[in-house]
Amino acid sequence: MVLGPSMVFLLILVLFCFTNEVSSEKELLSLKKHQWGVEGDSRSCFSPYSRTQNGATILEMKHRDSCSGPKTNTNQKLENRLISDDIRVKSIQSQIKNILSSQQESPSQTQIPINSGIKLQTLNYIVSITLGGRNLTVIVDTGSDLTWVQCQPCKLCYTQPEPLFNPLISPSYQSIQCSSPACHSLQFATGNLGFCEKDVPTCNYVVTYGDGSYTRGELGRDGLVLGTNKVENFIFGCGYNNKGLFGSASGLMGLGRSDLSLISQTYDMFGGVFSYCLPDSDSASGSSGSLILGNDTSVFKNTTPISYTRLVQSPQLYSFYILNLTGISIGGVDLNSPNFDKNGVLIDSGTVITRVKPSIYAAIKAEFLKQFSGYPPAPSFSILDTCFNLSGYDEVSIPTVRMQFEGDAEMSVDVSGMFYFVKRDASQVCLALASLSYEDDIGIIGNYQQKNVRVVYDTKEMRLGFAKEICNFN
Ligand SMILES: *[C@@H]1O[C@H](CO)[C@@H](O)[C@H](O)[C@H]1NC(C)=O
Ligand SMILES: *[C@@H]1O[C@H](CO)[C@@H](O)[C@H](O)[C@H]1NC(C)=O
Ligand SMILES: *[C@@H]1O[C@H](CO)[C@@H](O)[C@H](O)[C@H]1NC(C)=O
Ligand SMILES: *[C@@H]1O[C@H](CO)[C@@H](O)[C@H](O)[C@H]1NC(C)=O
């Protein structure tokens, strides 16, 4: 029998789909790439780029580590990073429990949101904005609302390489008055009331953080430029007194959901939609990702369709983005756990390592070890307890982890988000997932597992989408 060209094509297509299907449940990880991983390129660290395309504003997004210069004592740094990640997760858990229990005792407390600042511990990604004519590099946080920058005259400021924002030399800067609605919105946005000193009508804010970090100052407004889009009268915190783990960024961009967040303030311009693609910071290419403001999905470079799931509404946990996790598969094998859809999971740009309930973690670990077998074990590291010595291998094939959400949405964890390299020579490489302390803790999808994924936050349609994308600004 002679096959016609279309038959041959069909056959190839079938074979291709078949092999693709099988291999898609495992992905190759090159270990050499990590061993030779270069340090950040300090030239391109600050002042990330931006551009506008079809009405969407695209900001280059970089990992903060690419700014931190030569790495001394990498192991200590890696360990500290996980310790502070753990502090962040524990404070999120305790805040949530406080809120939920105080709500039962006194229903009048329901409107008091979580002090969003607690989520600041390990924020990692930075973008550049122009505020009052000044270019400023700020940390991106989906878990808090108020955007702020360090401001002159400083009572206490940490060191930043960029000049401090000076409201006196920006003709368009205005202080916000105590009587203004924006001052009243502070309670919802920061957990603290706006306050005024005697005889001074300007509204002061304070955001305090679980670890003792804080920013204080006055609430002001000025012109904000994002890419080429100008936002008049953008409300932000002009911080005179700032202390904490903000690296050397000039401030912070709040992408939460309350009235004062950047997303709410730019609603008319961007339709309440933003998305990001977090680059693989460990890769030798020193890559960058993007933060895209706007609802035009045609500017994304996703390679799979966006699958959306509902954002779960919780009046008490208003400032969090919460999803309904319905399942997890490892290398194509679905885990059985009745506990997936109990009280949802948070998706957070600031937590590093994804945390799941102890019972779910146990199931993941068992299935992962079954499929990723034969590799020499290595000691646990901090919160990570599934570790291997892979220094004898050039590459390994890792079972793919997929998280499933209500509405048939799925996030496939990129191979770059599967292992945490404790040692650069790969002699201690750990599965980058960890267990929560208690079964009733709330799961958190951390940024390590969100690398090379386009994550779309649609506050208008109240949904969140995932698609595969190799993150790149260009
Ligand atoms: C701010 O950044 C833009 C774009 O990178 C650049 O064209 C401009 O000159 C910068 N402005 C200042 C005041 O540095
Ligand atoms: C996208 O955002 C623009 C600007 O706010 C708005 O006019 C438009 O209706 C939005 N489109 C969709 C599909 O939501
Ligand atoms: C890791 O494995 C390599 C060979 O595969 C071995 O030479 C080395 O000693 C091991 N390292 C540790 C820390 O166990
Ligand atoms: C989560 O989704 C599942 C499946 O659609 C549904 O049965 C469950 O009620 C949802 N849970 C919540 C908390 O909405």
TrEMBL record:
<dbReference type="InterPro" id="IPR033873">
    <property type="entry name" value="CND41-like"/>
</dbReference>
<dbReference type="InterPro" id="IPR033121">
    <property type="entry name" value="PEPTIDASE_A1"/>
</dbReference>
<feature type="signal peptide">
    <location>
        <begin position="1"/>
        <end position="24"/>
    </location>
</feature>
<keyword id="KW-0732">Signal</keyword>
<dbReference type="InterPro" id="IPR032861">
    <property type="entry name" value="TAXi_N"/>
</dbReference>
<protein>
    <recommendedName>
        <fullName>Peptidase A1 domain-containing protein</fullName>
    </recommendedName>
</protein>
<dbReference type="Pfam" id="PF14541">
    <property type="entry name" value="TAXi_C"/>
</dbReference>
<dbReference type="InterPro" id="IPR032799">
    <property type="entry name" value="TAXi_C"/>
</dbReference>
<dbReference type="InterPro" id="IPR001461">
    <property type="entry name" value="Aspartic_peptidase_A1"/>
</dbReference>
<dbReference type="InterPro" id="IPR021109">
    <property type="entry name" value="Peptidase_aspartic_dom_sf"/>
</dbReference>
<feature type="domain" description="Peptidase A1">
    <location>
        <begin position="125"/>
        <end position="467"/>
    </location>
</feature>
<comment type="similarity">
    <text>Belongs to the peptidase A1 family.</text>
</comment>
<dbReference type="InterPro" id="IPR001969">
    <property type="entry name" value="Aspartic_peptidase_AS"/>
</dbReference>
<dbReference type="Pfam" id="PF14543">
    <property type="entry name" value="TAXi_N"/>
</dbReference>
